[in-house]
Amino acid sequence: MKQIQIFKTDNPRLFLFYPIFFLLFCALIAGLAWRQIIQKESFESQEVLQSMRRILNPGTRGNIYDRNGKLLVGNRPVFSAVAYLGALKDDLRKEYYTCVKLAKQKHSKIDFNAVRKEARLNVLQRHLDTINSIIGRNEKIKLKDLERHFSQRLLLPFPLIQDLSPEEYARLTEQIPVDAPIQLFTDSARYYPYGPAAAHVLGYVGTTLNIPEDGVPGKELTTFSLRGKVGKAGMEAFFDEKLQGTSGGDVWKVDPVGYQFQHVAHKAASQGAPIITSIDIDLQLTAEKALGDHTGAVVVLDVNTGEVLTMVSHPTYDLNELTPFIPQATYEAINDKGAWLNRATQGLYPPGSPFKLITTIAGMKANLIDEHTITDCKGKHYVGNRAFHCDRRSGHGLLNVEESIAKSCNILFYQTSLDIGNMALAEQAREFGLGEPTGIEIPFESSHTLVPDSDWKQNKQLGKWMPGDTTNMSIGQGYLLSTPLQMACFMASLARGETRTYPTLIHAPENHTQSSRQKSSPIGLSQEQYQMLLNGMEKATLEGTARRATLSNVRIASKTGTSQAWYQGKRRNIAWHAGFAPADNPTIAIVVMVEETEDDNNYGGGRTTSPIAKKVLRKALLSKTSS
Amino acid sequence: MGKSSVHARPLVLLGCLLLIWWFVPPFIKSFVQVNFFELQAPAWSAASHLKDLQLYWSLRNHSQQELIEAGRDLARLNSAYELSRQKEAALNKEIEHLEKMLNLPPLPNYNYEVARVTRRDINQWWQQLVIRKGKDHGIIEGAPVVYAGGVVGRIQKVFKNTAIVELISSPNFRIAASFEGDRRPVIYQGVGTPAFSNPRGIIHNVPPDYTTESTPKRLVTSRLGGTFPEGLVLGQVDELKARSDGLFQEGKVSLPQNLMSLSEVAILIPLDEDVDTTI
């Protein structure tokens, strides 16, 4: 009874504790309120961050079509069998305990990490064996891949077999239960129906984990990305942003280990925009075939719009071999044959005799060449005490301007260039866009093309500019470097009587009004002078060096050339054919360039490139007529 | 006090039963679970026989005139079927000849077993039929089930004298299919049949260049899946829609309406198990 009285509420000794307890209780309530009300949002976001994960999947890339709507680059499905690790949780746990039990029976000391790895491998291999038995394969899981997946990409499905054929896919679809942890996964890979055709123009893609978020919810969450594709070369690279689809994604609630637990949100990925190129695939195929095994390039432009109808660079490679990834052996094989180089936009060559047309124009503008100009070709021309030879060592005899162009006699151009001087010649070449990139929609276009002059030579510390440099330059030799595309642009400009053509790989027929056609400064020649130039080029086709490019019923303006370049210590001929057709109403400009690769090739413009140009021109003109 | 104990008695009993069940050895539990269906089967089978008997007596009430008309229709049908049978025999011979010429492995051949439907178990989650034939009649799991209008489904489980057929409208039913006249595989999956509506399915992975060209296309089975023979009708695809990823199209499949009221089906049993069906 006395003990009970100790707890009497009016015991004065207790009064001391009331405020203490009250204060502690208040502190508790305040703490609770702080956590539940003030810090609510912070905890909520922390909970979300800890328990939610996001998976980004890339959108399919847009298709690329030729100017007539034929598919050049599309997407093909890539089927794979994958294991959803979240659905295998129980299997993995059971297998782990079984492995531990077995290990205990065998050893006194257990390496739990090794046992865990073994259990994972056993479970996944068992499922893979089921698939193997259905489709008749004998695939094995690599422990290294599996462990990397568990440590870095746990939320994503583990790929068991990645390259199922449509038949295998069909069989598995039917024989794997709908709700099994093993499921079929469809990804996309680039597909090139024409294989190696226009490979350098179209380009190829590589893989990336850097996928744009594109409004997929859960920006703050830990994010896993499926592999996307990124353009590495050609139009695939230049128009990468446009071709990239919009990313999709899923947000998952995960369990404490990180396995998928509950699907929270989904956004579907969508395909990128299509591109219609200016390429005419039928003409491209004709040009590819005509160029054959030669190392070189063919460029065909629409004179009026600057659209690239064909761009061939050989040797080439089959784009389908580079997708979904580039095998090392394929990479090396392409590298060994020098096929990575797009010779049309990256190959640097002395332009040879087609450059004589620029010398002629410069001479005409300086009133040094007119219809009365006659040159006596004796096979060589002395500059100082150095002899500069003509192609025909015995000499052409007396030639007027048209004949000089048609027969590609050097003497007129030597004399003219010396009279007008190097700077005027260089100026004229630059007016036509030589020496600077054309700006075509392909990355890595060479910026090292060169129109040399005395200042350049001095800056490069190559000595004083000599008259011999000018004569070399007048026939497209010496330090001059240009790409086949630049020469094609020059031909298109010449065909229109203008100075610049800006080539494009985009076909936009809605823009082809009179006002939006290629337009630049006039060439600056009188009608008579221009006609003289054309007559020379036509004569070259009819009876001159380009006669192997003659087509019946079509007037063709051409200029062939054979320049020399040094490659790995050996002098190699570079054969050229440049021209446009029909000469009276030009629509097509063409440049064919072929490199010598062997000592016994003996290539020459008229011999080697004109027959190729003839085949391509015939097809191009037929296409134009039919369209 | 006595009254409340009376009220509590069923709960106590239930608790006791659950406790006993808890302590029952696992092998007994497993045996009961497996054989639960077998225990029910005789009752369903008997009910089905009774129904057949009922149908028989109702048919007996038909007039002579009706029987004559039905007999005439049947004779016409028989002659049409006979013609088809002869055509099929000729085609089979040609196939055999071509197989020999091209040195191709023979296509898997099937025997068929006709079975009466005893029960339909159709709801949102599963769509099944119970048929009156089982292991004793050579029925095997996974065997295709067909009827005159095309595919019914696939054998899901087999018991002694009964078997469960998973209907093609079931969400768990997925097979490789193709459009009639086009051998590229597409994926068919059931989607369940909501109340008072026709059975439907969906197709995935239809190549993007395929069009229904304003007329519905028949969807048929593909041999590629390894279960069904080629060319059995699944349903009709009315409309295809391009998927946002541009890789494939997908569409809805209308299944035959009488799928839910079948009274008899045929089970296709592979004749030669040694036939190589691997790809």
What are the main properties of this structure?
heterodimer; A: 627 residues; alpha+beta; Penicillin-binding protein 2a (Domain 2); 21 helices; 21% strand; elongated; B: 279 residues; Thrombin, subunit H; six-stranded antiparallel β-barrel
Describe this structure in words.
The complex is a heterodimer of chains A (627) and B (279). Chain A is of the alpha+beta class and 627 residues long. Chain A has 21 helices and 20 strands. Chain A folds into two domains: 53-276, Penicillin-binding protein 2a (Domain 2) (Alpha-Beta Complex), CATH 3.90.1310.10; 281-334 and 350-626, Beta-lactamase, CATH 3.40.710. Helices cover 37% and strands 21% of the residues of chain A. With 279 residues, chain B is α+β, with helices and mostly antiparallel strands. Chain B has a domain at 110-271: Rod shape-determining protein MreC, domain 1 (Thrombin, subunit H). Chain B has three helices and twelve strands, in the order H-H-H-E-E-E-E-E-E-E-E-E-E-E-E. Chain B has helices at residues 2-23, 26-60, 64-102; strands at 110-122, 127-131, 144-147, 150-158, 163-167, 174-179, 186-190, 200-206, 217-221, 233-242, 249-254, 264-270. In chain B, strands 1-2-5-4-3-12 form a six-stranded antiparallel β-barrel. A six-stranded antiparallel barrel of chain B has the order 6-7-8-11-10-9. Chain B starts with a helix and ends in a 9-residue tail after the last strand. The interface between A and B is medium-sized, with 30 and 23 residues.
In terms of topology, how is this protein built?
The complex is a heterodimer of chains A (627) and B (279).
Chain A: H1 2-5, H2 17-38, H3 40-51, E1 52-57, E2 64-65, E3 71-83, H4 89-106, H5 112-135, H6 143-152, E4 158-164, H7 166-175, E5 182-191, H8 199-202, E6 205-208, E7 222-225, E8 228-231, H9 234-238, H10 240-243, E9 248-254, E10 260-267, E11 275-276, H11 281-291, E12 295-302, E13 308-314, H12 328-336, H13 356-365, E14 374-377, E15 380-383, E16 386-389, E17 397-400, H14 401-407, H15 411-420, H16 422-431, H17 454-459, H18 467-474, H19 484-496, H20 527-542, E18 557-567, E19 570-581, E20 588-595, H21 605-626
Parallel strand pairs in A: 1-7, 2-11
Antiparallel strand pairs in A: 1-9, 2-3, 3-4, 3-5, 6-8, 9-10, 12-13, 12-20, 14-17, 15-16, 18-19, 19-20
Chain B: H1 2-23, H2 26-60, H3 64-102, E1 110-122, E2 127-131, E3 144-147, E4 150-158, E5 163-167, E6 174-179, E7 186-190, E8 200-206, E9 217-221, E10 233-242, E11 249-254, E12 264-270
Antiparallel strand pairs in B: 1-2, 1-12, 2-5, 3-4, 3-12, 4-5, 6-7, 6-9, 7-8, 8-11, 9-10, 10-11
